[in-house]
Give the backbone structure.
Amino acid sequence: MKLYESEAKQIFEKFGLIIPKQIAIIKSINELEKLTLVFPIMVKAMVLIGGRGKAGGIKKVYSLEETKKIVNEMFSLSIHGYPITKILLEEAVDVASEVYLSITTDPVTFDVIIIASGSGGVDIEEVARTQPEEIWKKTIKNNPLSLSNEIAEEAAIFLINKNPDLDIAKIQLVSTITALFAVFQQVEAKICEINPLIFTKDNTLIAADAKLVIDDNSLYRQSSLLKSIGIDPRSKRHDISEQTIFEVQAYNIGFPYLDLLINPETFEKEKNKLYVGLVPGGAGYGIFSIDEIVNVGNRYFDGKVVPINFMDSGGGPSLSNVANMFHLLMDHPATDLIITSRFGGISSCDIFIQGLIMALRDRFMSKKRMIPVFGRMVGTDLAAARAFYEKAKRETPEPLKNLHIVVGNQKIMADVIKDGIEYGFRVKEQEKSGGN
């Protein structure tokens, strides 16, 4: 569960972190008339997505007239395609310097990671790419409930070395780092971030921004905390703005889907890698497929194979849902190859192959992007599925020329995946050289 900035700041304040004075959250420009405003103030779009500042969603204003103008503009603005429906007004603080501070979890080892940078208020990914020496990173093993004073001081000293004016605030820095770690652990967060953490001209450290993502699995344990900031813990309350366009599309159609790539709409592929979309038969098989794609890719292809999604067709999907699953991945700009598997139990192999072929024929007739498909089907209605598949290959060979389905269990899925990846790389090389 992602929290809005105003909600995250309420939690930060409970743990002793200093935040700017929160004036109001408004949902229309008319609400400004009811407020007593002392300028300057900050006007901030409340959306659960990054990049607000660059998109015009954060402004400092100096008068009521300017505030009305900016608020009016923001309510007509979309950030990365998502409309702004509420705006936070808070006091502006006098900035002497800005730093970055975050705590998160390594997705591979699940160790806790603390990251600090002397460059606050900017895109930390860009800083890491262009100025890695500006980043301090510490991996903390064994998941301690509290942060040792030694590590907090180490982070503080790094920040002071980058910003000497922070020297007089060393005790505050150590306290802030320790408090943020307490937030991370006690609310069972996936990430806690302050960007920027502002050192003001009156020598105070203030969390000018706040990012907090709580693990969905812990929501029932965080019930009291969430209720205290106005969130119903029974609802995972995922704002649509945190979903990718493909996740929204799948949700509207009616099947579970998750992108594994960050910002897939604008993702830039590495040219030497193969990006594999997955259409498995169920959730468990979907998780296995992701693992096996990575395993085969590491074992035989020098780690140059990337799974791009999780998907679950559910029990007994309709013909149109099967077709739509393949349409979605073929419309996905990252997809180089689709690996699919139908281990028919509740679900019918016959419906599966009909839906897949329906999608390929439709795309061929509409001159839409076609992606090679490799897979296997075993189980319920296999005889009918085999007959339909063989007949379709005879009747319409052109739209199905890059469809390769193993019928039956004479080949294990790991070998099907390996064959598919080899084929995908060959097709990619042919496209690069302009071949057919």
In short: The chain has a mean pLDDT of 92. The first strand starts at residue 22 and ends at 26. The CA atoms of residues 7 and 230 lie 8 Å apart. The domain at 95-228 is CATH 3.30.470.20 (D-amino Acid Aminotransferase; Chain A, domain 1).
